Amino acid sequence: MIPDPESGGINESLYDVQFSDPDGVLVDRSSASPADLAQVTRIMTALVALRDAEESLAEASSRYMLLNRTDMRALHFLIVSQNLDEPVTPGALASHLGISTASTTKLLDRLERGGHVVREPHPTDRRALIIRITPETRAAAMETVGRQQARRFNAAARLSPGDREVVIGFLEDMAKELSVEGISWADPG
Hints:
Elements: H1 9-13, H2 17-20, H3 34-65, H4 69-83, H5 90-97, H6 101-113, E1 117-121, E2 129-133, H7 135-149, H8 151-157, H9 161-178
Helix pairs in contact: 3-7, 5-6
């Protein structure tokens, strides 16, 4: 079966293992029926559509808030931490974001200049500071990005409990399969 370019066939075939790995070098599909292959392709295509939708939402959110993705992740962390009544130190934020303390200082300077966060004395450690999101930024994030992201809940809630368990198992398994830990990257040169 050759993809039909007129019907968007190449785009539709990008995640079809029959076209991305026609010789079966990467995936042994000898025991898979054509129906199984078609269904797996639909899953892969749906995952890509989800990733694309999330990337578009992240880009639109960043444009709206005039912030980059790391800034947006920092604000999300601060909102959840505030909801849990957990103070956030610069070190905790650096750890969550996986960035250096120097990068965290630059991030906080930028967010503070933009009126998105304030630095305050730590309630129990006189030597430390905590970071709080400003009420205005919190409200803007919740009403725009937060409201859009919350729609994920609706899609998950529409599933039956059994279907949710299947999806959870699939996504956890997929995350393990895609983990870069333990991968030995060959030198292409």
